[in-house]
Amino acid sequence: MNTALQQQIIDPRAFRDTLGHYASGITIISGIDETGPIGFTCQSFYSVSTEPPLISFSVMKTSTTYPRIRETGKFAVNVLSHKQVSVSNQFAKKGTDKWAGIAWEASRAGNPVIEDTLMWLDCDIWAEHDAGDHLIVLGRVNEMSPADWHIHEPLLYFKGKYRYLRP
């Protein structure tokens, strides 16, 4: 392997910009505690295993919402549709009422499932791993939306902007 590549100093902003070339979906990780519904926008989400059914997301260690979700031991993943840019933005802001004007129903476990999402999964926390300035959270899926839940296009994030699939 090229020694120069092994010793390259990686600038955090350049790293983020480079990884921005990987298109990803947008999710809201949601839960509920004694104060009511809680949640945050997350684009680091993926499937891990089918047996058992596991998914994963990453969250900044500085998150003030995730520790509250961790305390409950459960969460829902709401995969946003192309019509939900405002929902993504609302949940990405700190210090605001993230649930203002957001219609949702509870999963069987009580977690908030946001109306008009592309799909959703309800999970128990399976494991958590330290990963630099983030935590990697594994969830075991206990309930999910039907495959034909909503026929929408996904909300994507690419090169620092929201994007949509064209028909």
Rg on CA atoms, Å: 17 Å
Structural class: alpha+beta
**Helix proportion of residues, in percent?**
10-25%
State the domain count.
1
First-last Cα distance = 42 Å
Give the strand content.
35-45%
Helix/strand order, N-terminal first: HHEEEEEHEHEEEEEE
Broad CATH class = Mainly Beta
Query: What's the average pLDDT?
Result: 93
Count helical runs.
4
Going by CATH, the architecture would be Roll
Largest sheet data: 7 strands, antiparallel
Question: Key terms for this structure?
Answer:
single chain, about 170 residues, alpha+beta, Pnp Oxidase, Chain A, about 15% helix, globular
What's this model, at a glance?
With 167 residues, this protein is an alpha+beta fold. The chain is built from four helices and twelve strands. A hairpin with a 2-residue loop joins strand 9 and strand 10 (134-144).
Description:
There is one protein chain. The protein is α+β, with helices and mostly antiparallel strands and 167 residues long. It has a single domain, classed as Electron Transport, Fmn-binding Protein, Chain A (Pnp Oxidase, Chain A), CATH 2.30.110.10. The chain is 16% helix and 43% strand. The chain is built from four helices and twelve strands, in the order H-H-E-E-E-E-E-H-E-H-E-E-E-E-E-E. The chain has helices at 3-6, 12-19, 66-72, 85-92; strands spanning 24-25, 27-33, 36-42, 45-50, 53-60, 74-79, 104-106, 112-114, 119-131, 134-144, 156-158, 161-163. The strands form three sheets. The protein has a seven-stranded antiparallel β-sheet. Strands 1-11-12 form a three-stranded antiparallel β-sheet, with no helix packed on it. A two-stranded antiparallel sheet has the order 7-8. A hairpin with a 2-residue loop joins strand 11 (156-158) and strand 12. The longest helix is centred in the N-terminal third of the chain and has 8 residues, at 12-19. The radius of gyration is 17 Å and the shape is globular.
